[in-house]
Each structure stands twice: as structure tokens, then as C-alpha cells.
């Protein structure tokens, strides 16, 4: 039986471990922190008899790798699936608008959504229709040096199309601005979202905490099959023999006798391992972008929808949970620098603007979580860098949302990389 060491217990490490274990390989997973989940986990808030995620995570119908993985660990029934794409947009002043709705007639679902949206006039609709009609025929080569901003400008997208459609979509998918994100990756996800059937563009929201969704079921799956999951074990160094990793040294132990290694940690963490074999300057090319999540427990206030998108606000999304609500600010570079008290007053001010019957008195408690290194920025530079990284040792395979998946820094990219790494190891074993 081949033994494989997996470094890192986020979506990438856990999914690769589950797939390898399913194929009867013995896995040892080493995670440096006291919990699994990496950048996507939940924790209890005892005073409210509740639990929260470190940040709200949403999946999409076009996340086939993630949905397959969650099926493997028996977690699909912990998700809420939209039947067709529907976004509730809320404007300053409180007016609510629906984008999407009841059309299930693919490929007309997107056209129905855009043509029935009350803020789009003929010019907006024509600009969007022109864009989507040309999308399948836009070659990759034409986009490879363009930012999304440049692409949208070339296709003459209108102010309203930007405000009510493109800007929310871009910040949601890329956690950055259209100026910084790569048009090529955008093409890839637009095709996956809107040209792969009615379900692909729907949103899928976990109905439980992230740890209950995938960390605990994955750990149970692995342990039941006799694998080893070790927490609080930080990999600090490799020992190399004949171009292979022969020993892995952690803060507690030394491992040898394994056949293969998957590194499923972000680039910055990999570069901290001694004898990592990569050029340290690589790090400059992997910029990160923060996300600010604000969980609020309320007195006497009910929302009608499961989630809302804000138009023209510095907040982007509001999610309504059983006992709390979560406000999300993507691309939060400036806001996360502010002290929590100021953020708190901005939250109440903004909620009052968008939900006019909401007042500061409705806020019972607030928890602010700043994730400074939430995602990588899918810039042109990042795309070139991720393509160029090759594993420096014969028995090492990289996984993680930053690897060459053609997707932005998302759960789907992490899980796709985990499955791809597991498949690569299977191939290496067969070719021995
Ligand atoms: C607030 C927030 C909101 C987000 N929202 C969404 C969303 O709505 N939809 C979406 O698709 N994506 C979202 N993302 C992105 C998503 O969470 C990440 O893309 C994904 O979790 C990355 O998984 P990963 O396994 O590649 O990396 P990580 O989750 O970073 O996992 C790496 C693991 O390796 C461990 N590690 C590091 N160094 C070592 C070492 N030396 N030894 C041992 N272990 C080590 C770390 O502790 C960590 O557990 C969001 C991210 C954040 C932070």
C-alpha cells in the first residue's frame, strides 16, 4: 500500500485525502492549526447558542468538483440549492429588485433575467446581449493580456449593466476590482456559469457551519478508513535524497517511509518550509485580497429573503441565517484597516439606508472577522506565475486554490486542485 503525506487540511488537502483514501491509499494529513478547514471553517458562539463561519461561503451550480466531493462525504443534503438563478438586489432607500426569476428554459434563463430586470433599458439589454452572443466565439488568445475592465470597455458595457450585473459578479467571483482581474479567467467562469445549463448559474448556500459541512465529515471518512489526521503539526523542513522528499520534519515529529507528498498549503506557507526548492521571489507575484465579515445578532427584525446583494454600497452581500445575519465586504483593503468601533457604526448606518425600518436598536451583538489573506488576486501576473510553478521534487504534487486550475481563488479551485493532485499521484503510482 502506498503511503501519501498531505500537508494542509483546507478544502484542497481534505478533498485530495478523501479521493486517495477512496482508492485505498494510506494517507497521513498534517495540519498546522488546531482545527481543519484553513480559510473556510466555523466555530461556536456560545453566548448566542449559535455557530458562525469565519466568512460566508457560497457555492454555485457550476462547482462540479465541490459537489462531487461533498457527495463523497455525504454532505449534499446540508446545502440549499436555488432552482434557478435569482438575486435580490436592494437599493439605497430600500427598494428591492429581482434579477433572475422563474424561467427554467435554458439557454433563455439568462436573457429572461436580463430582459425582465426593471433597471435595464434597451441600451443596457443590447450591450449585455451582444456580450453573451459573442462570448462562446471569443478566443482565449484575444483575452490573454487583458484585464476584465479592458474587456468590458471594448464591448461597450453601459453604466447600468456595470452597476446591477457586472460589478457584483466580478467582486463576488474575484474578490477584487475589474481593473486587477484577468479577462481570460473571467471568460472561463462566464462560460461555466451561463453556458452550461440552467443549474450552473444558481447559487448554493450551506445550511450548516462549514466545519459541519466538510471538515468533520472528511475527518470521519478518513479515520474510518484507517488514515491519520494530525492537528497542530506544522511542517517546517524537508530532507531531500535523489530528487525526492525523503523526510518531512514538523514541529513535533519526523516522517519517513512515505511514497508521495501533496503540498496543499498557500504559496507563502510553502515557501516557509526549509528546502522547499522554489524561488522565494515567486511570492511577489501572488498578491492576496481581504474579506470583511460582520455577523450580527438582532432584536425584533425579520428579513424576507435568504440573501441580498447591495447596489452602490461599500457592502456587497447580506445573508440571513437562523439566529444571525452576515454582512460581507469583499475586496476590503481599506475597510479592514478601520477600528472595529468605526466599522460597527458604518454597518448600522448602511443597514438603515438600505432597510429604512432598521435602526441601531435592532443590533443586539456584533462580531467582526477580518480575513486579511482571504483569496489570491487573479491578476494577469498571478495567472502567468501559477502556470509557471512546477513541483521541484519527483514525489511532490502541489494542490491549493492558487495552483493552475484556470479558476479564481475559490472553493471550486481548491477542490479541483485536490482531485487533480490525487489523480496525478494515482498515475505516478501506476507508472512506477
Ligand atoms: C472570508 C472568506 C470568504 C470566502 N468566500 C468564498 C465563497 O463564497 N466561495 C468560494 O468558492 N470561495 C470563497 N473563499 C475562498 C475559499 O475559502 C478558499 O479558496 C479555499 O478555502 C482555499 O482552500 P485551500 O485548501 O486551497 O487553502 P487553505 O484553506 O488556506 O488551506 C491550507 C491549510 O494548510 C495549513 N497549513 C499552512 N502551512 C502549513 C504547514 N507548514 N504545515 C501544515 N499545515 C499548514 C493551513 O493552516 C490551512 O489549514 C472565501 C475565503 C474567505 C477567507
| The CATH homology group name of the largest domain | FAD/NAD(P)-binding domain
In DSSP terms, counting alpha (H) and pi (I) runs of 4 or more, how many helices?
Answer: 13
The shape, in one word, is globular
Rg value: 22 Å
Q: Describe the strand arrangement of the main beta sheet, using strand numbers.
A: 8-7-16-17-18-15-19
CATH architecture of the largest domain: 3-Layer(bba) Sandwich
**pLDDT below 50 for ≥5 consecutive residues: which ranges?**
none
Q: Helical residue percent?
A: 25-40%
Give the DSSP E fraction (strand runs of 2 or more residues): 15-25%
- The CATH class of the largest domain is identified as Alpha Beta
Integer average pLDDT: 95
What small molecules are bound in this structure?
A: flavin-adenine dinucleotide
Please tally the β strands and state the result: 20
Tags for this entry?
FAD/NAD(P)-binding domain; single chain; 5-stranded parallel sheet; 13 helices; Guanine Nucleotide Dissociation Inhibitor, domain 1; Alpha-Beta Plaits; 7-stranded mixed sheet; 3 domains; binds flavin-adenine dinucleotide; 432 residues; alpha/beta; 24% strand
Amino acid at each position: 500500500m502506498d503511503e501519501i503525506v498531505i500537508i494542509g487540511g483546507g478544502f484542497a488537502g481534505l478533498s485530495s485525502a478523501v479521493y486517495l483514501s477512496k482508492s485505498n491509499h494510506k494517507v497521513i494529513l498534517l495540519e498546522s492549526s488546531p482545527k481543519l478547514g484553513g480559510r473556510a471553517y466555523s466555530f461556536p458562539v456560545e453566548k448566542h447558542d449559535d455557530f458562525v463561519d469565519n466568512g460566508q461561503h457560497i457555492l454555485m451550480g457550476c462547482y462540479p468538483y465541490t459537489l462531487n466531493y461533498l457527495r463523497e462525504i455525504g454532505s449534499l443534503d446540508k446545502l440549499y440549492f436555488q432552482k434557478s438563478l435569482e438575486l435580490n438586489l436592494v437599493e439605497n432607500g430600500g427598494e428591492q429588485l429581482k434579477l433572475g426569476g422563474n424561467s427554467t428554459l435554458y439557454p433563455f434563463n439568462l436573457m429572461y433575467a436580463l430582459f425582465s430586470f426593471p433597471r435595464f433599458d434597451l441600451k443596457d439589454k443590447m450591450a449585455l446581449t451582444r456580450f453573451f452572443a459573442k462570448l462562446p466565439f471569443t478566443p482565449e488568445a484575444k483575452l490573454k493580456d487583458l484585464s476584465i475592465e479592458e474587456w468590458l470597455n471594448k464591448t461597450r458595457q453601459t453604466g447600468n449593466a456595470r452597476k446591477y450585473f457586472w460589478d457584483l459578479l466580478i467582486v463576488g467571483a474575484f474578490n477584487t476590482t475589474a481593473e486587477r482581474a484577468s479577462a481570460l479567467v473571467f471568460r472561463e467562469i462566464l462560460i461555466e456559469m451561463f453556458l452550461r445549463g440552467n443549474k450552473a448559474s444558481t447559487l448554493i448556500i450551506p445550511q450548516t457551519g462549514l466545519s459541519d459541512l466538510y471538515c468533520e465529515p472528511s475527518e470521519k471518512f478518513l479515520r474510518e478508513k484507517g488514515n491519520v489526521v494530525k492537528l497542530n503539526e506544522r511542517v517546517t523542513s524537508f530532507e531531500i535524497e535523489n530528487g525526492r522528499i525523503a523526510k518531512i520534519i514538523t514541529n513535533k515529529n519526523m516522517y519517513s517511509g512515505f511514497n508521495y507528498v501533496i503540498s496543499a498549503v498557500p504559496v507563502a506557507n510553502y515557501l516557509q518550509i526549509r528546502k522547499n526548492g522554489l524561488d522565494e521571489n515567486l511570492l511577489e507575484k501572488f498578491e492576496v485580497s481581504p474579506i470583511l465579515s460582520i455577523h450580527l445578532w438582532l432584536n425584533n427584525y425579520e428579513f424576507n429573503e435568504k440573501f441580498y446583494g447591495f447596489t452602490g454600497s461599500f457592502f456587497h452581500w447580506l445573508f440571513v441565517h437562523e439566529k444571525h445575519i452576515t454582512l460581507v465586504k469583499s475586496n476590503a483593503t481599506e475597510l479592514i484597516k478601520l477600528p472595529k468601533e468605526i466599522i460597527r457604526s458604518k454597518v448600522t448606518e448602511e443597514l438603515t439606508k438600505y432597510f429604512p425600518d432598521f435602526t441601531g436598536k435592532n443590533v443586539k451583538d456584533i462580531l467582526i472577522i477580518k480575513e486579511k489573506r482571504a483569496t489570491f488576486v487573479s491578476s494577469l501576473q498571478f495567472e502567468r506565475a501559477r502556470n509557471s510553478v512546477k513541483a521541484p521534487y519527483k514525489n511532490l504534487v502541489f494542490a491549493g486554490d492558487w495552483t493552475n486550475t484556470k479558476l479564481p481563488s475559490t472553493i471550486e479551485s481548491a477542490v479541483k486542485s485536490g482531485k487533480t493532485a490525487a489523480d496525478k499521484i494515482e498515475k505516478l503510482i501506476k507508472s512506477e
